[in-house]
Amino acid sequence: MPSHTLILEVGVAVSLVALVGLISNRLRFSVIPFFILIGMVLGQHAPKIGDIDLTFTESKPFIDFMGRLGVLFLLFYLGLEFSVGRLIKSGKSILSGGTFYVALNFCSGLLLGWMMGLPFKEMMVLCGIMTSSSTAIVAKVLTDLKRTANPETEVIMGMIMFDDLFIAMHISFLSGLILTGSSSFWTVAGTSLLALAFILAFLVLGRKLVPAIDKVLQDKSSELFVLVIFALLFMVAGFSETIHVAEAIGALMAGLVLADSQYIKRIEQLVLPFKDFFGAMFFFSFGLSIDPMSLGGAVMWASIAAFVTVLCNVGSGYFASRFSGLKKRNAVDIGFTLAARGEFSIIMANIGKAGNLMPVIQSFVVVYVLILSIVAPLLTKESRNIWNAVFGKDKVEKKPVKTLSDLEGKNPSENKGSGNDV
């Protein structure tokens, strides 16, 4: 393909991503499965129209790089919104519910991995895939259904924060287990501990540097503000990769540090468009790497995993609602909402791909994410009807009708007595 069509080819890719995004919004669905599907449809079996190769063979390295940036911005933005202090203040109920959520989903991953006969590394990636809820889909569903002010929403967001903490820890573990390329226990343990030490040290030392960073950012023009923030993001992510810690962890750490900045709102407004654009290209590039013909063997296991995930999430929702003093029916609200899977499950699978693990992981995550990113929002929308159909409507106690004398604070006998005394 002539090199002068490279920009045109990238333009076509972005246009197609935008088109399916408009369609998904019109249908009121999450955009994530649409971005993946358009990549898969084009991918390896798409036709060539003139000079435009819809398989994106020549531009794929560039699109993959944009997808790589998407991972960095997704994790960086996650760090900006995450707060350990907020997690602690959320209370024992959310910590308990989050613990059950991670434990049930992680154990279901272990069970399914054992049933599939996966080696240990693939099993650990599978556990990460099945335990990582989609923050993007959850936030969109709660907003679309106008449930942001509901009592269970605070519990949901607290459990999401707890899951985010798990994501950070598990990615650091997978970095040591997979990305080092070593089978030695001590090498893997050493790299995992190095990743954890990097996280803790960066949190402690980085937060002490926040006042200095704020001083640098003070009264800076927009272009200098962007350059300083992006320099910090890419330097930290790049450095973490050199010590065999996933670059995504470095991006997350940079976001966690800047979360304490006095310019946090400005930073979030700056990063959000980049997160949305490169995040979309991340899902598209992931779809391009998948051959639809290879998904057949993963459909059954992914379907079983999706069903088990919904059950486990409803179970964790039951414990969370019980600890929080909510009604039993809120268990399905919490469970169905948290069942959505998306960006972080794919990030986990990409770590496995980088470590040359079994291709079945990639096929599995595609079907698994597609099922839950579509089914979970639908279940959430109908959660109340599902509860009423299975358990019946909640009984509403009839309040006694108050008479005029009740409202006046008197009873009829008192009125009668007072009349005789006159």
Plain-language structure description:
The chain has 20 helices and two strands. Mean pLDDT is 82; it is low at 412-422. It is an all-alpha fold and 422 residues long. The longest helix has 29 residues, at 151-179. A two-stranded antiparallel sheet has the order 1-2.
Q: In terms of per-residue confidence, which ranges show pLDDT below 50 for 5 or more consecutive residues?
A: 412-422
Summarize the helix and strand pattern as letters. HHEEHHHHHHHHHHHHHHHHHH
Can you tell me the overall shape? globular
**Rg over C-alpha atoms, rounded to the nearest angstrom:** 26 Å
- Widest sheet: strand order? 1-2
The percent range for strand residues is: under 5%
Q: Residue share in helices? A: over 70%
Secondary structure elements and their pairing?
Blueprint: H1 6-27, H2 31-42, E1 48-49, E2 52-53, H3 60-81, H4 84-89, H5 92-116, H6 120-131, H7 135-144, H8 151-179, H9 185-208, H10 210-217, H11 222-242, H12 247-258, H13 264-288, H14 296-324, H15 330-338, H16 343-354, H17 360-381, H18 383-391, H19 404-407, H20 412-420
Antiparallel strand pairs: 1-2
Helix pairs in contact: 1-2, 2-13, 3-12, 3-13, 5-6, 5-8, 5-14, 6-8, 6-16, 8-9, 8-15, 8-16, 9-12, 11-12, 14-15, 14-17, 15-17, 16-17
In short:
It contains 20 helices and two strands.
Descriptors for this entry?
single chain; 422 residues; two-stranded antiparallel sheet; 20 helices; 76% helix
